[in-house]
Amino acid sequence: MTATATNIGLDGVIAAETKLSAIDGEQGQLIIGGYSLEQVATQLQFEELVYLLWYGTLPTVPQLKAFDIMLKRFRQLPDNVLDVLRVAARQQKQPMDALRIGLSVADLDQQELDSNALSCLILSRSASIVATYQRLLSGDPPVAPDDSLSHAANYLYMGSGVRPTQTTAKGMETYLNTVIEHGLNASTFAARVIIATQSDLLSAVVGAVGALKGPLHGGAPGPALEMVFEIGSAENAEPAIRAKLNAGERLMGFGHRVYKVRDPRADVLAAAAEALYVNGQQRAFYELAKTVETVAIDLLAEYKPGRRLQTNVEFYTALLLHGLQLDPTFFAPTFAIARVAGWIAHCYEQSKTGRLIRPKSRYVGERNTSIAPIALRSHLNLLSAERN
Amino acid sequence: MTATATNIGLDGVIAAETKLSAIDGEQGQLIIGGYSLEQVATQLQFEELVYLLWYGTLPTVPQLKAFDIMLKRFRQLPDNVLDVLRVAARQQKQPMDALRIGLSVADLDQQELDSNALSCLILSRSASIVATYQRLLSGDPPVAPDDSLSHAANYLYMGSGVRPTQTTAKGMETYLNTVIEHGLNASTFAARVIIATQSDLLSAVVGAVGALKGPLHGGAPGPALEMVFEIGSAENAEPAIRAKLNAGERLMGFGHRVYKVRDPRADVLAAAAEALYVNGQQRAFYELAKTVETVAIDLLAEYKPGRRLQTNVEFYTALLLHGLQLDPTFFAPTFAIARVAGWIAHCYEQSKTGRLIRPKSRYVGERNTSIAPIALRSHLNLLSAERN
Lengths: 388, 388
What we know:
The structure is a homodimer of 388-residue chains. Chain A is mostly helical and 388 residues long. Chain A has 17 helices and five strands. In chain A, a hairpin with a 2-residue loop joins strand 3 and strand 4. Chains A and B meet through strand 1, helix 1, helix 4, helix 5 and helix 9 of A and strand 1, helix 1, helix 4, helix 5 and helix 9 of B. Strand 1 of chain A pairs parallel with strand 5 of chain B.
């Protein structure tokens, strides 16, 4: 027997060296591709940031132009993708399932692509799949992509049929940039495990989408805004949140297993969200959300002293995406169409190591000497049940 | 900085406690579901063994009957699966891709299924997808399932259109039983990472299929028999193998990173394979394979003393599946339709822990202070290239 302890969650195990992001949870700092989050979120186009993560440097003007052409080449969804999305919509499949299903068949119209082209196909079509599925679920016809629009703007356009304003396009771009990459979360790790066998990028990304779907992943900002709607008015914030905390409920949108201070992504998203709530009623909702946040943080400090629970990325993600008029059921898939760029970057990094990821298991079962004939088994099962 | 070393392959890390299998590489022993491989491979129907892994006990007669009915309920592929498989076949997609694609849409004809039913759907339709894709790639029409046949026999039937003999059905069943489960290999681990987020079984299995596709996974028995074909005659075995070893080539079908003695699965598969090679020419091929094996082991001991390289599961898998008239391109997907039962069993086990799998990464990138304007970047890239 070995003395090594079982570590089911792989807590504290360092499974990769990466140039993609550095998370400092104690300081509340995030570096993406060598630059602070605050810079990459607001100063770069999404396409530039993707280029940085995939190829290791920021693109020059001609590099960005060529990359952009390649991305746009794949925006249009082929018929076989549209067909399965229509079937999925008829069955009311969840949007994350629709993304997994659509991506699975997303390269069926192509002959063998090199990894650059396949990466661009996956990135472009992820966005087109999610946008188109929004349309289909609402009973609306798909919208063809518009090559005059950026990736972020075109995603909004294909989902709504409405040409985005500069403000809404910038809001979506800031969101995509902010959540593009965040270390070895479960979906990214799933992608690395798959690509490490020398499988292909699409297989790895499809696996990652499956992992991101899980509620434990933490990439699901849907419920964070529900509390704001429930509370409804500033004066109701304190009694409503006290009631929740007294009942032992967890406040969605607060606390993160890595960040012990404010999640650096929260401020970036808060600023982008604010620009979307301009007129009277919208503005009032934004102010209410800010009030709820302040009250929640104060009361969390009172009810859970020492836990340092702060607003997390989900709270402002919800506020931003709500401001962009996305339905909460599409928050997680919108997260996915950003993170897919990070998954692909991690696949490139993992592939360079040439290493298979293969931990061990510890056997804790029985070592029986013989199989009972089937006719005798009910009696044996009973005996065994009595023993337990 | 932390003193913890980076462990990219997770070597020696114990990431799960399992009742599904125990591998003793030093003794060459394998326990599956509490019983020795030798027993489960030959004394159980595949359906009984699946039941054991999923539910923890061998089924009674009525339990097995109910389970069998549920499995058969899902054998027929719905139109949307057939449609995407036809598109995949037109594009000459690899069979492992076809399995991933077909499985991705395999539950689109169903409303929400409970996990028992979904598990049965995945198991049954995996086999039907691979068998049907064999037909489509050859330009043959799909074959409808036959409910009078067992899972193993029906798989052979749907792939070939020919009703299997008792011997061939038993050969396939022994194969499926033998490779159903083997600890935390990369595909099984991928399934556990995905399900650990509380995602769904189909997402986990689709991810695992993607991992199994990779050539580093080791579940790819295609090339193992090529050497036997190349060598062609018993007298050519020694010179041909010496030539390979002198040239530094690796002998496919020999050596395993876990088993230091003979892989226990090899004998079980060898016995099942032998029964398939009965008449003159077939028998001669089997004898040749045995001769190649003996010579290879002797020469490996001579060329690589102390390495204890033995015949591994790939060699006899190839011999067995060739005896069942499967094309080598379908060896890996046939492996997958067995292992899918193990993946699902691991998903049940992982889910019970309630634990997310989330290791850490170590940042080894730069910490730049500012983003260069795009117009200045070509100059900067050049400088940076010169520095490296």
